[in-house]
Amino acid sequence: MADLHLGYAQYNLDVRREDFNRAFQEVVDKTIELKPDFMLIAGDLFQQARPSNVTLESAINNFRRLKDAGIAVLTVDGSHDSAPNVVTGTILNPLDSAGLLYYLPRHEGACWRNESCYVYGVPNFRTKRGTEEQLPAFLEKNKPTPNPSLFNIFLFHMAIDIPDMRPPGMEAEANPELIPKGFNYYAGGHIHIPNKGSLHGGLLVYSGCTETVNSDDAEIEKGFYHVEVDRKGVPTLHRIKLDTPRRFIVLDYDYTGLTPAKITEKAIQLVKEADEAGAVIVTVLKGMLPAEAGRGEVDFAKIRDAAEKALIVRPILRLRETEVPEEVIRSIFEGELKDLKTKAYEYFFQIFRERYAEQEAEKIARLAVKLIDPLVRGEETRVKEAMEEFLS
Questions:
Q1: Same domain for 77 and 197
Q2: Cβ(45)–Cβ(84) below 8 Å
């Protein structure tokens, strides 16, 4: 399994934090019934690197149940629960020390063995650049040694650049060439949609998340895989469905051409028709607004208040204001040769001046250009510093 995101108080609702914990409890209940030799968690066990005491206590209780049942728990960290720095390390370290789980990258050879399996796990390096720079060094220091006489498992948390295995818009963090060969089963996390494929002659599996983390995976059946391996080393996957995840209803509607008042009216109608006890209703507002209409004119408060039985209504704003005319874009990018950042600034300025005063549009356009380089490099600290400087 992967991407449990324990402790995630989604939409600032404590009941959603409880939902994620409840899903893990169901996972543990069903795992104990299945009596496997061991459990694999492919990262993002926790939503944050420093989970709350309430979340930690709940996790400890469930891990103790697995330990009492004789089920080893093998883990790697993910992008959410990886070590924030070298000094503090990941929360998985003390859980490992307490004997509640086995954090593979911490141990000699980054591996675990029993009489029939060899399991090797790598830490998460957050970005594509970090993975390309640090994964080879980790593999060199902790050389993988898959054994042809055993069933060999590679545990990781990252999106591998393989067609049909990565959702649109998600950046791949590693090329297949970076991943070592010789494994029968590649158990992956980070991609929330369950998927199966092949890698280096082995089976590549993403188990998906156990609760809805964002609207993109809202309608995906939540669960985990029970893997049985025969004497010839052939794995068979059984999808174990979870019953506890909260019901999400996604209302994806194109409002192109409607005025903000009509958009508000239509969205309220859709919410009322979909209203269901305890559900999370996600209404996606997309499309192109009429000329001179602004996104801020849509009454989101009325849309959020339209349901009577749902847990919460969560509008997602994807409405676009009138586009920059094509001739303006062409004049910027097809004119005489200029520095690329200068062209980018002019393009951003044309967009922002439609909604803001000229002086403010100029400032925001400069910020947009300033963020390009650190965003591409994955330098989150520089991005935050630039944003904070702008806001102050």
A1: yes
A2: no
Q: How confident is the model at residue 328, as a pLDDT?
A: 64
For residues 115 and 255, membership in a common domain is answered with no
In CATH, what number is assigned to the domain containing residue 211?
A: 3.60.21.10
Whether 365 and 314 share a structural domain: no
pLDDT in tens, 201-229: 999 999 999 999 998 899 899 999 999 99
Candidate from 134-148, 264-278, 281-295 with smallest mean pLDDT: 281-295
Co-location of 303 and 171 in the same domain: no
How many domains are there within the chain? 3
Could you read off the pLDDT of 131-143 as tens digits, one per residue?
999 999 999 999 9
pTM for the whole structure: 0.81
Three-state SS sequence of the chain: CCCCCECCCHHHCHHHHHHHHHHHHHHHHHHHHHCCCEEEEECCCECCCCCCHHHHHHHHHHHHHHHHCCCEEEEECCCCCCCCCCCCCCCHHHHHHCCCCEEHHHCHHHEEECCCEEEEECCCCCCHHHHHHHHHHHHHHCCCCCCCCCEEEEEEECCECCCCCCCCCCCCCECHHHCCCCCCEEEEECCCCCEEEEECCEEEEECCCCCCCCHHHCCCCCEEEEEEECCCCCEEEEEEECCCCCCEEEEEEECCCCCHHHHHHHHHHHHHHHCCCCCEEEEEEEEECCCCCCHHHCCHHHHHCCCCCCCEEEEEEEEECCCCCHHHHHHHHCCCCCCHHHHHHHHHHHHHCCCCCHHHHHHHHHHHHHHHHHHHHCCHHHHHHHHHHHHC
Are both 43 and 128 inside the same structural domain?
Answer: yes
d(CA 43, CA 140): 22
Q: Which domain holds residue 374?
A: 326-391
Amino acid at site 223: G
- On whether residue 3 sits in a domain, the answer given is no
- In this structure, the answer to whether residues 270 and 312 fall within a common structural domain is yes
